[in-house]
Amino acid sequence: MSTLLIKDLKVVAGEEPILNGVNLEIKAGEVHALMGPNGTGKSTLSETIMGNPLYQIVEGQIFLDGQDITTMSVDERARAGMFLAMQYPTEVVGISNADFIHAALNARNGNQPVAILPFLNELKQQMDFLEIDEDYADRGLNADFSGGEKKRNEILQMMMLKPSFAILDEIDSGLDIDALQIVAKGINAMRSDEFSCLMVTHYQRLLNYVVPDVVHIMMGGKIVKTGGPELAQELEKTGYADLSGAVEGSDND
User: Fold this and answer.
1) Residue 2's CB: how many other CB atoms inside 10 A?
2) Residue 220 in contact with residue 20, Cβ under 8 Å?
């Protein structure tokens, strides 16, 4: 089970207000898409859910499976089953991709470290599934990876860590059609009653391959419209101009 509930979330970065009362519920087993113009708070919401200290919550709460995680640190949230695929994955030359994932699994498991041989076997299986060359396991984390390789590597980490709730921040940006299909295959492989997901995206094309249960539109730092997959298709035709008046109103279902 993994249910995320956000109540009246208001967030600032420094002195600047960014989120202006976000309300959101993602139930166990659901995949939600979050769309909206640039600069409207989508990535800020992603980072805030994960606990980035650069963003200060001034009002509201975040609950994971009924537990208030509003004041939890990033590592506490990760141990609780949360995962963030970053928009711009960081390169770390001094640690191999395999060592990083193994260390992350051990950190989450606490007193039950993951045996190396089963880990390596599963890593190979998942890399094969995502069409990642075996030698990438021994390369520095994201070191000299292309944009598409970094995004596939984020999905590899997700599939190995098996979080109960994942946030995918523009996982489709910069991907060609082949890489997009592989990334989507990985996301769809995770779908189950024990997994929930929030996908931040600008484009309908990802949603052609990973069909969301719910689509939300964010403008002005809050969610102004919610609907089914057809809402994203509608946006492809009309853009966001027709929703500009909703920014001053309340969240809509």
Assistant:
1) 22
2) yes
Q: Crossing angle of helices 177-190/116-129, nearest 10°? A: 130
Those residues whose C-beta lies under 8 Å from the C-beta of residue 14, and which sit 6 or more positions away, are none
Give dist(CA 193, CA 30) in Å, integer.
8
The pLDDT tens digits of the residues spanning 137-172 come to: 999 999 889 888 999 999 999 999 999 999 999 999
Q: Are 189 and 159 in contact (CB under 8 A)?
A: yes
Contact 61, 9 (CB under 8 A): yes
Question: What is this structure's pTM?
Answer: 0.92
Q: CA torsion 172→91→43→64, rounded to 10°?
A: 100
Return d(Cα 143, Cα 121) in angstroms, integer: 23
Q: Are 12 and 44 in contact (CB under 8 A)?
A: no
Give the position of tokens 């966001």: 240
Alpha carbon 55 to its chain centroid, in Å, reads: 17
At residue 40's C-alpha, the angle toward residues 155 and 163, to 5°, is 25
**Does the pLDDT of residue 74 top 50, yes or no?**
yes
Please tell me the distance from the alpha carbon of residue 204 to that of residue 97, in angstroms, as a whole number. 31
Alpha helices in 162-228, H assignment, sequence order:
177-190, 204-209
What pLDDT score was predicted for residue 88?
85
Return the DSSP state at 196. Answer: E
pLDDT in tens, 38-56: 899 999 999 999 999 999 9
Cβ distance 16 to 56 under 8 Å?
Answer: no
Rounded to the nearest 10 degrees, how much is the dihedral formed by the CA atoms of 71, 73, 75, 76? Answer: -30
CATH superfamily of 4-91+163-246: P-loop containing nucleotide triphosphate hydrolases (3.40.50.300)
